[in-house]
Structure formats: C-alpha cells, structure tokens
Specification:
By secondary structure, this protein is mainly alpha-helical. The chain has one domain. It is built from 4 helices and no strands. The relative contact order is 0.15.
Length: about 50
C-alpha cells in the first residue's frame, strides 16, 4: 500500500482498498517518506525562503 501512495494514488482510495474507516490510520501505517523525498522537501523550502 505504501507503493500506491508513492505512485500518487489518492490516500482516500488507498484507505478504501485496505478497509480503514479513518484516513489517519492509513497514513500512519503506509505513508513513509524516503530520504530523497525529505531532501526534495528541504530543497523546496530553501527555494521558497531565498
């Protein structure tokens, strides 16, 4: 399911697939950021602050 989120499948769709009643449960279990995701996020933050 993490792969579905990584592939930009909407979280509410993943929630329905796994059968969770609360999106927060789905995101807590399956949403993981990679080191590259974190680097990209900090890069965007740096760009916005400059």
């Amino acid at each position: 399911m993490s792969l579905l989120l990584y592939l930009s499948v909407p979280p509410h769709t993943v929630r329905e697939i796994v059968g969770h009643s609360d999106i927060e449960v789905t995101m807590t279990i399956y949403a993981h950021s990679s080191l590259n995701d974190k680097r990209a996020a900090f890069g965007k933050l740096g760009d916005a602050l400059c």
